[in-house]
Recover the amino acids of this structure.
């Protein structure tokens, strides 16, 4: 599989939420494709792992689902963000930014060598 | 919140309806996912097969996705548990015989131990219904004859005043009253207590008020508190009972309050009327008349030892101050809990141990059954392992089965324990029950349930361990193969036979315990009481002191009673003793000294009985020397006494007692001539040694409470109503109490009751244990025969005689039984030594009992092995060899 990174659990949920926020109600296949594409094909995503993650988010009340018709006239289950999900996304985004900022400082070359 | 919501959804996700709907929806969703992906792939120019393959590959497999989804949609652990549970139920239902046996045996063990534990809980664990009961102490005087004896009122006052270790010290006296009712006098039980008694215990009346300080003084108005039961029964629970007058012993008392329903005070129970002390009369004011008990609350931080030292030093001070009355009077303290339940503790612990052993046998029995079963399920387990079941999953299956078994047995055991508890209470005499009021708290409370839960968990652990342990060692290949070889499992042989040995040894311990207790009971029931108990009727008579308190009145009453009863048809002779008949242990003690011997003020204390002429003759007690009293011997004649043989042995060894004179400790001494020596009569408990006893003529020492003895030629019971009626005829104010044949008194006496209770219960446990042990042995031998069918077939085919096959099987059982009996023998002697205090006139190593029990077990083992041995001997070699 080469240099592609595996997706880890916590970040997958964040990516799913963000994807739905950006594109509006979307089916599982669409979410998977979008995540893959956005990552610039750097991520190897087993599409199957997406469904338990979607179920977990739905159980937590972050997203809701209903059946609809896809752009290609296929029956598909569409997921949309709930109000709780929007809040969760905001919080997770802030968290993630902080974490990456802190890590970035650690990993950045030292400015005043001792 | 978020997590809770998810958890709730996952829990409901386990419901079968939800699950089916979810499966359908998931299938549809994955289907649509694949369709969209295939569409895209086709558009990208792949062939249809390629498009489909790629889509599935990228999904990561349809089934794997579904599996991951399922794990998330419910709770896998619970889901597996549910599966295991369903499978366990199926397995157990398939093997109904095994299941019923295991559940019943388990229920039996649970039932016995839970029921007994409920008794232990009510008596020993549940705290007494007082404020901070661990700070309460029983306070006694102490003399050589009674390590815990009564206090005299003046001593009590001094102890109360001088002590520095009690925040309060109070006194009580258990006694009977005659209550006047429109239909005549009625005997009731009650107590006299000092004013602060209930405050010391921390009891507040539910209705009305407690005694005021000073309300127990002689000149205070007479007031009385009612027990809750008396309030309900006599006054219908009406609140207007306060202020009503009730006449006790001829004096009106005003009801001032009602005690709480849960209040009880065993040393004075059963008590319905609680009056204040009102010290007056000859006894209360005399320092040498001891009729009270003390109860005190220890000051904070003061230990019982410190209080004990404090009281002892006060007692010593009083000894110096009042040598005439107090010489030899020490002090004894013990925790009130000890006073109340100290006597019953060894009995309850014995029963709990017995029930525990029975539970052990039951559990071992079930474990052995499970082991046999796991042996025959080897193949199933091997197949499951081969199909990919993990060791954890297999173990969890066994654990689930164990829990299902234990739960069924536990529930059944608990339900039957409730019933058995009632049954056991029924075995206790009403009299005993009244004196052990703490047993009223008996029931399945949370402590008992926790105990049941704890032993269930232990049992479940044992049961899952038995078969679960083996899984590790399972080699799948071997498991699959061994089924066809048909040799007895080695694990079974090693472990199963050990379990049976354990069972037999435990059964032996219980049987020996039961044997010793039964023998004790037998010895106790046949102990010489110095009385011919058959055709002897007894009855207590309580006359109002106001009418019969004077000597002449009492003598006249005694004469009238004897004359009237003697004229009843069938009556051969009549006699009476003050304060009750033999075995009751009622009555006073006295101090005497031997005239003509040096005396330094020591108190030779002994029970004193004041008896009518003809009392000994009626009892059938033999005078070994001298003569009986005569009716003419009253206060105008010289003092005379009859002593028992114990007295003669103790004070006049090798001397002629009839030549000696005794005296009370008065100055100047008043001589008492010894006119006779009577054979020892058991005035007190059956199981206590007979002390020296001195008998005085009733006419020289009268009383108003009489114990009547009547010898009849007829059936004892037919005389009882006539006796009571005759007494009532003399004066309706006189009350006959507890008419009963002497034989009943013997068998109902507290020591007999305790011995009978323990013998019956442990005997019951032992019979069940024997049954379980023998069934266990039978199971082992039968199983081993069934496993060795082929081997035995080969032996017979090669020319082995039937007899040698018999020998083979019986020998195996014999070995197990022999080892079990040998181990059991050693454990029995150790266990019996522990319960020595509950045995009477039997040694823990009583050889006949041990031999008899060993023989019973040996024969039972032989019988148990005979059936399988016969089956083994009748094996048809052709069949046996062809069958596998």
């Amino acid at each position: 599989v080469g240099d592609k990174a595996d997706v880890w659990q916590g970040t997958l949920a964040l990516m799913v939420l963000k994807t739905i926020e950006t594109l509006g109600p979307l089916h599982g296949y669409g979410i998977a494709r979008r995540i893959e594409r956005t990552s610039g094909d750097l991520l190897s995503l087993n599409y199957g792992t997406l469904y338990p993650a979607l179920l977990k988010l739905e159980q937590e009340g972050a997203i809701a689902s209903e059946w609809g018709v896809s752009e290609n006239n296929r029956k598909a289950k569409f997921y949309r963000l709930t109000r709780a999900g929007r809040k969760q996304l905001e919080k997770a985004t802030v968290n993630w930014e902080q974490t990456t900022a802190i890590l970035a400082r650690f990993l950045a070359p030292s400015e005043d060598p001792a | 919140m978020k997590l809770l919501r998810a958890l709730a959804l996952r829990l409901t996700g386990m419901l079968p309806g939800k699950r089916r709907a979810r499966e359908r929806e998931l299938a549809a969703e994955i289907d649509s996912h694949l369709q969209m992906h295939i569409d895209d792939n086709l558009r990208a120019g792949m062939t249809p097969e390629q498009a489909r393959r790629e889509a599935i590959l990228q999904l990561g497999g349809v089934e794997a996705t579904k599996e991951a989804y399922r794990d998330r949609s419910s709770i896998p652990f619970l889901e597996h548990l549910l599966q295991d549970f369903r499978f366990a139920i199926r397995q157990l239902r398939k093997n109904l015989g095994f299941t019923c046996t295991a559940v019943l045996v388990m229920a039996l063990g649970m039932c016995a131990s839970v029921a007994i534990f409920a008794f232990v809980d009510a008596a020993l664990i549940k705290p007494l219904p007082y404020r901070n009961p661990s700070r309460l102490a029983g306070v006694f005087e102490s003399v050589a004859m009674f390590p815990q004896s009564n206090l005299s009122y003046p001593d009590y006052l001094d102890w109360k005043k001088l002590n520095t270790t009690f925040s309060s010290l109070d006194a009580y006296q258990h006694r009977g009253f005659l209550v006047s009712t429109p239909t005549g006098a009625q005997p009731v039980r009650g107590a006299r207590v000092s004013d602060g008694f209930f405050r010391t215990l921390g009891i507040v009346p539910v209705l009305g008020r407690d005694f005021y300080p000073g309300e127990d003084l002689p000149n205070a108005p007479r007031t009385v508190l009612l027990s809750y039961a008396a309030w309900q029964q006599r006054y219908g629970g009406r609140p207007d009972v306060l202020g009503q007058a009730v006449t006790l012993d001829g004096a009106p008392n005003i009801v001032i309050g009602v005690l709480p329903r849960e209040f009880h005070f065993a040393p004075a129970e059963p008590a319905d009327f609680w009056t204040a002390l009102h010290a007056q009369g000859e006894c209360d004011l005399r320092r040498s008349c001891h009729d009270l008990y003390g109860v005190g609350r220890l000051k904070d931080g003061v230990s019982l030892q410190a209080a004990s030292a404090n009281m002892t030093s006060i007692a010593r001070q009083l000894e110096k101050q009042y040598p005439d009355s107090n010489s030899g009077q020490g002090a004894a303290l013990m925790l009130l809990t000890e006073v109340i339940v100290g006597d019953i503790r060894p009995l309850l612990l014995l029963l709990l141990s017995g029930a525990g052993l029975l539970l052990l046998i039951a559990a071992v029995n079930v474990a052995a059954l499970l082991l046999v079963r796991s042996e025959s399920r080897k193949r199933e387990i091997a197949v499951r392992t081969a199909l990919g079941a993990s060791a954890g999953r297999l173990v969890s299956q066994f654990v689930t089965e164990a829990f299902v078994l234990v739960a069924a047995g536990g529930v059944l055991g608990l339900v039957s324990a409730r019933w058995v508890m009632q049954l056991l209470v029924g075995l206790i005499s009403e009299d005993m029950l009244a004196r052990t009021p703490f047993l009223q708290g008996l029931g399945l409370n949370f402590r008992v349930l926790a105990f049941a839960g704890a032993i269930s968990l232990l049992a479940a652990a044992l049961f899952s361990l038995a078969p679960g342990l083996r899984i590790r060692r399972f080699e799948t290949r071997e498991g699959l193969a061994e089924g066809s070889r048909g040799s007895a499992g080695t694990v079974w042989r090693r472990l199963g036979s050990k379990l049976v040995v354990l069972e037999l040894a435990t059964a032996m311990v219980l049987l020996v315990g039961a044997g010793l207790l039964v023998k004790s009971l037998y010895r106790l029931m046949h102990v010489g009481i110095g009385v011919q108990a058959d055709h002897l009727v007894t009855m207590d008579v309580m006359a109002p002191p106001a009418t019969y308190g004077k000597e002449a009145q009492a003598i006249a009453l005694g004469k009238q009673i004897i004359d009237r009863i003697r004229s009843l048809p069938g009556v051969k002779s009549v006699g009476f003793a003050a304060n009750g008949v033999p075995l009751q242990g009622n009555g006073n003690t006295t101090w005497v000294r031997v005239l003509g011997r040096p005396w330094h003020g020591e108190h030779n204390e002994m029970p004193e009985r004041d008896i009518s002429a003809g009392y000994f003759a009626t009892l059938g007690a033999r005078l070994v020397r001298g003569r009986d009293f005569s009716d003419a011997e009253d206060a105008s004649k010289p003092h005379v006494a009859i002593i028992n043989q114990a007295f003669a042995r103790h004070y006049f060894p090798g001397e002629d007692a009839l030549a000696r004179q005794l005296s009370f400790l008065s100055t100047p001494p008043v001589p008492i001539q010894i006119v006779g020596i009577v054979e020892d009569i058991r005035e007190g408990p059956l199981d206590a040694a007979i002390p020296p006893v001195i008998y005085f003529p009733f006419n020289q020492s009268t009383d108003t409470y009489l114990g009547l003895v009547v010898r009849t030629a007829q059936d004892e019971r037919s005389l009882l109503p006539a006796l009571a009626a005759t007494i009532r005829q003399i004066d309706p104010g006189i009350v006959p109490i507890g008419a009963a044949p002497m034989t009943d008194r013997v068998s109902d006496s507290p020591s007999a009751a305790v011995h009978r209770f323990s013998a019956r219960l442990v005997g019951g446990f032992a019979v069940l244990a024997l049954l379980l042990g023998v069934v266990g042995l039978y199971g082992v031998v039968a199983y081993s025969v069934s496993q060795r069918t082929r081997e035995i077939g080969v032996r017979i085919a090669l020319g082995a005689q039937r007899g040698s096959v018999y020998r083979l099987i019986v020998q195996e059982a014999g070995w197990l039984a022999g080892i079990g009996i040998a181990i059991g023998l050693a454990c029995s002697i150790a266990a019996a030594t522990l319960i020595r205090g509950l045995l009477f006139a039997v040694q823990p190593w009583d050889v006949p009992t041990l031999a008899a029990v060993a023989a019973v077990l040996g024969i039972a083992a032989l019988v148990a092995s005979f059936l399988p041995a016969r089956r083994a001997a009748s094996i048809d070699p052709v069949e046996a060899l062809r069958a596998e």
Notes: The two ends of chain B are 62 Å apart (CA to CA). The first helix of chain B runs from residue 2 to 12.
